[in-house]
Design brief:
6 helices; alpha+beta; 2 domains
Length: about 120
């Protein structure tokens, strides 16, 4: 199912998200409400559809590329190896590496290889 309508406005505006499953949020939005709204999405397909609708195709590709960079770094690859694999500048890879090392830990958590 596709998200029918998304109208999000930041800071003291009204946010209305109509989802195919009759999931509606309609309240004054503060900077965190969009994140609360995202908790209504349950599957990877729903997240993909949401981000494809609110991001430009280029922004969507950049988001996927940055995640891939972090995945490669989490596997122990060097900055130079990731630059070649992902075809990006070293500054982009270094930024991802810095976030993995010094960030709040969430990105590191979701990019760690799964152990069974």
């Amino acid at each position: 199912m596709f998200i029918k309508t998304i109208a999000c406005y930041c800071d003291s505006m009204i946010c209305q998200l109509y989802f195919a499953k009759n999931y509606v949020i309609n309240r004054t939005m503060n900077k965190n409400n969009v994140f609360v709204a995202l908790t209504g999405l349950k599957t990877a397909d729903e997240f993909e559809q949401f981000f494809q609708e609110i991001l430009t195709p280029r922004e969507f590709e950049e988001m996927k590329k940055r995640y891939r960079i972090c995945l490669e770094l989490s596997k122990g690859k060097t900055v130079q190896e990731v630059c070649k694999t992902c075809e990006v500048a070293s500054a982009t890879v270094v930024r991802g590496n810095r976030i993995l090392k010094y960030g709040n830990g969430l990105l590191k958590k979701i990019t760690q290889p799964k152990t069974e």
